[in-house]
Design a protein that fits this description.
CATH superfamily of the largest domain: Galactose-binding domain-like
Number of helices: 7
Largest sheet: 8 strands, antiparallel
Organism: Populus alba (White poplar)
Helix content: 10-25%
InterPro entries: F-box-like_dom_sf, F-box_dom, PP2-like
Protein name: F-box domain-containing protein
CATH architecture of the largest domain: Sandwich
Distance between the termini: 88 Å
Radius of gyration: 28 Å
Shape: elongated
């Protein structure tokens, strides 16, 4: 009886009978969360930012997103976005650079891979030197939803096949690969379904196409490949190059592909663009 009475007395006084409040995520300091975010990938940060106000606030910290941006982000903001880096938050810079951003009169695009923050660059065929491109007997410009530039070049037939281009760009340190995006056959849609006409494809199995790449730092690469994959886009590897961390100046690239054996014609190929991406992405591409 006495024990029961004292227990009731304690509860009524709000003593040891009341359970203490448990700590929650809201109690974690925002600065601590931001420090943790520095070691996480951008998609993970964005997911956790939806948990509560503390995590959302931590996800906005400039020092978090500066660790995710490439070393040349100021160059990209000024040249590609046309703005001052100081006028945008680091998170906004990252988000905008993850979208395809056109430059050089819309003939080139640059974007960041959302997960890694690594740089990719695409160069439209319109920025390349192509033998006979202005002669409609050889080449046609074709609208295409399968191109990031919405237009591709279709070769009907030619004796001398040669495509070349140049790019001057400030790449972050790392290893990169360069590809030509090609397709044998001409794509169209019938009744909403994708079809590819390969009737004009010829000459690519007789001699290989030669791909070449050189840089202003003296690096060179070359390869040869028969074009044989019909009906689907493929990335044909021209070569790799390395950007050293001590090289802060823009790098000049020269690249080409040619099949200039004039003993036979060749045709029926579509040319979309040139792609430059980190070499670690090669496995993601359908390449030859």
């Amino acid at each position: 009886m006495g024990a029961g009475s004292s227990s009731l007395a304690l509860e009524s006084e709000g003593g040891s009978g009341s359970s203490p409040s448990r700590p929650s995520l809201d109690d974690v300091p925002e600065s601590c969360v931001s420090s943790i975010f520095m070691y996480m990938d951008p998609p993970e940060i964005c997911k956790l930012a939806r948990l509560n106000k503390t995590f959302h606030g931590a996800s906005l910290a400039d020092f978090v997103w500066e660790t995710k941006l490439p070393s040349n982000y100021k160059f990209l903001v000024e040249i590609v976005l046309g703005q001052s880096p100081e006028s945008l938050s680091k998170k906004e810079i990252y988000a905008r650079l993850c979208r395809p951003n056109c430059f050089d009169n819309g003939t080139k695009q640059v974007w960041l891979d959302k997960s890694s923050g690594k740089i990719c660059v695409a160069v439209s065929y319109k920025a390349l030197r192509i033998t006979g491109i202005d002669d409609r007997r050889y080449w046609n410009h074709v609208s295409s939803e399968e191109s990031r530039f919405n237009t591709i070049a279709y070769l009907q037939q030619i004796w001398w096949f040669e495509v070349g281009g140049e790019l001057e760009f400030e790449f972050p340190a790392g290893s990169y690969s360069l590809f030509f995006k090609l397709q044998l056959g001409k794509t169209s849609k019938k009744l909403g379904r994708r079809t590819c006409n390969v009737d004009r494809v010829h000459g690519w199995d007789i001699k290989p196409v030669r791909f070449q790449l050189s840089t202003s730092t003296g690096q060179q690469a070359s390869s040869e490949c028969y074009l044989h994959q019909q009906g689907n886009w493929g990335h044909y590897h021209a070569g790799d190059f390395v950007v050293d961390s001590t090289n802060t100046a823009p790098l000049k690239l020269r690249f080409s592909m040619m099949q200039i054996d004039c003993t036979h014609t060749k045709g029926g190929v579509c040319l979309d663009s040139v792609l430059i991406c980190p070499s670690e992405f090669r496995e993601k591409l359908k390449q030859f």
